[in-house]
Design goal:
Layout lengths: L7 E8 L16 E11 L5 E9 L9 E11 L2
Parallel strand pairs: 2-4
Antiparallel strand pairs: 1-2, 3-4
Length: 78
């Protein structure tokens, strides 16, 4: 789920389940990870695999529980 504007995303959410409504979160907070990428990643609907520094977030105002920083794609499905 993109959080930036444009064809490439540096800040986005990864979910364990696909979004069924463009205005709704696709899952509960336990199934969503906020991603902060080192370099912008092309936006698409295909699954991606990213690697980075995983952390538990406490008291996030948006209700997120997990964050991946310094993320880099290690596999992208065409």
């Amino acid at each position: 789920m993109p959080l930036d504007v444009g064809a490439k995303q540096r800040h986005f959410l990864v979910s364990a389940v696909p979004a069924s409504c463009p205005y709704c979160m696709p899952a509960g907070p336990e199934a969503i990870v906020e991603v902060m990428a080192k370099k912008p990643v092309p936006y698409g609907f295909a699954p991606i695999l990213v690697s980075g520094n995983f952390a538990l977030i406490r008291d996030d105002p948006a209700g997120l529980l997990y964050r991946l920083t310094d993320a880099e794609p290690i596999q992208m499905t065409p």
